[in-house]
Amino acid sequence: MPPNSAAISVLAHPLRSRLVSQLRRTGPLSATALATLLQTNSGATSYHLRKLESVGLVTDTEEGRGRERLWRATTEQPSWTPGEVADDEDATIALNWIERDYVRHFATRAEQWLDVAPTWPADWSDHLGLTDNVALVSREQLAAMRAELEDVLQRYRRVGQGNPQAKRVAVYVYAYPVDLDQTPRADRP
Predict the structure, then answer these.
(1) Looking at residue 13, what is its pLDDT?
(2) What is the mean pLDDT of residues 166-189?
């Protein structure tokens, strides 16, 4: 069983996915605060946070007061590849659900941005929004391009920290083949 299968299976749940996403966006929060933000009850939130903790996706910061624990996401970006779980049908199905959930989340947030974009100053909105690019690359070049994009995003992840004019922005990188009907042959050993 691949090492990430348990985490993938636990994360493939609507509330758990939302909990991890919220903690990634806002930083540490209590189960009560998360329940309020996500419009659910704190009992369910606490239960699902413990499930996420059991596979290392969230952790107790040990900074809470009394019985109120503060939780934080353990990673900025949980990421698994289909190849890592190819031999585990349950994990493959769970990963597919997670990826589709991320796409739904992106679509919802992107539409929310479009609703408020006209209220933002042009010097911000001119640099936000969707870009649509096409690249002609081999599998190796695609891997190198994604790694380079990830390096750029890592460099900028906290660069605005301490600057009151800095805003958090979500950057999605989603590569898919333009010609969906042209499946390449597998050229792995």
Answers:
(1) 93
(2) 81
- Domain tally, the chain: 1
**Residue 169 belongs to a domain:** no
Burial class for 17, CB neighbours closer than 10 Å (0-12, 13-18, 19+): buried
Of 127, 115, 122, 136, nearest to 179 by C-alpha is 136
Residue 60's CATH number = 1.10.10.10
More confident residue, 171 or 185: 171
Q: What is the pLDDT of residues 97-111, one digit of tens each?
A: 989 998 998 999 999
Catalogue the E-assigned strands of the chain.
29-30, 58-60, 70-73
Which range marks the domain in which residue 56 is found?
1-121
CB 71 within 8 A of CB 61: yes
Which is more confident, 77 or 35? 35
Specify if 177 maps to a domain: no
User: Is 24 part of a structural domain of the chain?
Assistant: yes
The answer to whether residue 126 sits within a structural domain is no
